[in-house]
Amino acid sequence: MASEDKKPKAACFDGEAARSLVKELRGTFDAGKTKSYEWRVLQLKSLLKLTKDHEDDIIDALRSDLSKPVLEAFVSEIAMLKSSCEFTLKQLKRWMVPEKVKTSITTFPSSAEIVSEPLGIVLVISAWNYPFLLSLDPVIGAIAAGNAVVLKPSEIAPATSSLLAKLLGEYMDSSAVKVIEGAVPETSALLAQKWDKIFYTGNGKVGSIVLAAAAKHLTPVSLELGGKCPVIVDSNINLIITARRIIAGKWGMNNGQACISADHIITTKDFAPKLIDALKVELVKFYGNDPLASEDLSRIVSSNHFARVTKLLDDDKVSGKIVHGGQKDQSNLKIAPTILLDVPEDSLIMNEEIFGPLLPIVTVDNLEDSFNIINSGEKPLAAYLFTNNKKLKESFVRNVSAGGLLINDVALHITNPYLPFGGVGESGIGSYHGRFSFDTFTHKKAVLYRSFTGDASARYPPYTPGKLRLLDALLSGNILGVIRALLSW
Amino acid sequence: MEAEEGLRLGRSVTELRETFRSGRTRGVAWRKSQLRAILKLIDDHEDAIFEALHQDLGKHPVEVYRDEIGVVKKSATNSLSCVEKWMAPKKQDKYGGGEVGGEFTHSTQVMTLALDPLMGAISAGNTVVVKPSELAPACSSFLANTLPLYLDSKAVKVIEGGADISQQLLQQKWDKIFFTGSARVGRIVMSEAAKHLTPVTLELGGKCPIILDTLSDPSDIKVAAKRIAGGKWGPCSGQACIAIDYLLVEQKFASTMIEFLKKTISRFYGENPKNLKNLSRIVNKHQFERLRNILEDPSIAVSIIHGGSLDEKNLTIEPTILLNPPLDADIMTEEIFGPLLPIITLTNIQESIEFINSRPKPLAIYAFTKNDSFKKKILAETSSGSVAFNDTMIQFVCDTLPFGGVGQSGFGRYHGKYSFDTFSHEKAVLHRSFFLDLEPRYPPWNDFKMQFIRFAYMFDYLRIVLLLLGYKLKKIFSPGHLA
């Protein structure tokens, strides 16, 4: 029923509707409803229950939107969301406790703490590639921090979008958690409102629009963007495991349509053929001889994206560079795992995020050169290195700037809730996951308690040279100096 | 001319980026040497700083020391002793090191507000451009002339200028912009930053209220009066983002408090409004006129109960108290940023919470009260950058507390470790070995792998073992999906 009367409303969601939505949420927030620990826990539990109750519906929606293989849907969306929710439920009480901090002699006697306070009403705009996880994971953070939240799922994954609208309407406190479905006009109407935080997952172009819209209201923004995540492969490694992990982190992640999936490989000239052979062998093991028929590969999300990825392959500069794959099935929007060797630096494929099943391999004479290649481009969301060389690992960690680094695997770092997940430079602003999600939607209020005693008159006029000496000592925390200054008053 | 200036700026930025690329700014030795250089600069030029601030703002040396030199020295010393600790990776997760930070200040604590973020940027291993406020020209030129003599000039640059230069600087691509100033300019900074997806910290202001609960002990009232006077007229004659803007008090307590405040004012600043001591002047003619217009509005003028005299020649304004000016007048809707203190009386001090909540979130809320449950209520029900109980301004010098706004008072925070964090990227790093590679991670998918993963996510190790041993387990997954 609830979804029934939502539909017509969503169809004409304009500036007026957005204004009244914000007003309603502001009312809920101001009434203090979302601030209590109990409310937050109740909502998180509902979210968990929603996920458990409707596993099959979620899997069906993801299949309809992306032909996402069941196991992938379960592992990378449902299970990830459940762990995130459970982790938050377990930790939330601790996160909410004000943090006591030390005070110095400068403010003696006093006590100080940092109080975590919800920002207010927040907007989450999510992406189509992990339409379930990327919608609800930020919502967990927003709720945990005690905010009222509006979720705008991606219209490019329509089945998941409407499922989210329906389920959140049924399970969550509808006075504080809302889903608005729609495309550009609806998003623009939402962005014109004043939010206390905007959390956007998607691409840099839209990210810049979001940031500019937020500037009008001085709203802080988290941008979870992407980038060309490189995989550097050394020659001294376990070849089979490396090949399998790269495949899992490329084609096993929504067929390469993930912000942290491997974009391209950088390896040495000598080692490239061996790596390619290993990748080919494992690819056949995973997806068979006709990968277009494999049930274990996602399709390309839409015909627009199919055309975009095809264009990367049709670029003259990469003709003849395909060493594996290349098959396409336009009617089913499927593209086979494709490997390209030695594509030129100025080719299209090396200048935009691939976000699809193409894997170019760039070769270098010396593996250390790969760091310069990475650093001369835009900062990626993740960078991966396969090696057993300790020195190289250290140098990688020190010299490569990326949102996150992972050594000897691909993409797995996002499953660790103790690590912040987020970009730097072109790959985004702000981070989330675990405690970081809570902090992203929280204002850290500085609180200082003083009593009426302990008043140093040096703070006040009339100003004298003696006061200057005392302040010098006080501010530098020099107790002896304080005593000296006081004695020579 | 403008194009030439743009080119010059472009070259500066390129040079900074090259310096950063060279890796020089990342070592702890470089960071410490720069922080020491700032300390030395201040020690060597204390008098010149006093002089510059006197010229720009008529600030008294003690005030300069309390709000500027002392704060910077304390901050530098703290950074020096902590930077190595801050840089150390947290187990599995943290690495310092950003890149080029641009920094813009536009305020009256010129030195602190320029140097404090600079130290954060340096501690975090960045190269930096400082654009000091053009409204304090003596300080601006002092920084431009002196910083290059002490700091690594290939990594730290001072660029002076007005709005046009700021505009051109903003066209460049920065890795971080740290801005202190007004909300209006803050919006411009953020919109420009949006083009390059540059993260921004905005340190803005707002109307910082003081909630004054009814106090009965005269000695408490006296302390409160001193701290309020100190927090209103002390910081640059109210021209500070965390200075008290207005005061909320119960009707019945107002007259007592006003008497105490008047006494404190005359003790602090002298009796003669023509010859005020220890009081900064208004930064420039334009601001002076703005404040004069507020005071001369007839509806406001009638509410003046103390002071109100202006000295146009010296750009000073007497500490002025107003009682219940109209709430829709500029004085109660705009940040005052000057030595005028409106007092708003309420029938019950509890109403102050609603009063504050119906206005934009301030950078700070001050509350004088001995009532613990009222303190809790203020904390829980209002929102502001910071809250200080029974004192004013002093939270600014507490390095363990983050300093920054929320809502209209800005976002992002600094001071102490928070400054370091503001200019750092926390890079997540996960190390894996080639040992233990589980088959169920990889396709082709089947029921076995599905169950394995299910149990793994539930940390159900027993069932995993049973599964591996070949036991048939009850399917908890509808088989239709894996047909």
TrEMBL record, chain A:
It catalyses: an aldehyde + NAD(+) + H2O = a carboxylate + NADH + 2 H(+). The active site is at E224, C259. SUPFAM superfamilies: ALDH-like. The keyword NAD applies. Keywords: NAD, Oxidoreductase. Residues 16-447 form the Aldehyde dehydrogenase domain. GO terms for biological process: aldehyde metabolic process; response to abscisic acid. GO terms for molecular function: aldehyde dehydrogenase (NAD+) activity. GO terms for cellular component: cytoplasm. It comes from the Eukaryota. The keyword Ligase does not apply. Belongs to the aldehyde dehydrogenase family. This is Aldehyde dehydrogenase. It comes from Actinidia rufa.
TrEMBL record, chain B:
The keyword Oxidoreductase applies. GO terms for biological process: aldehyde metabolic process; response to abscisic acid. It catalyses: an aldehyde + NAD(+) + H2O = a carboxylate + NADH + 2 H(+). Keywords: NAD, Oxidoreductase. GO terms for molecular function: aldehyde dehydrogenase (NAD+) activity. SUPFAM superfamilies: ALDH-like (SSF53720). This is Aldehyde dehydrogenase. It comes from Actinidia rufa.
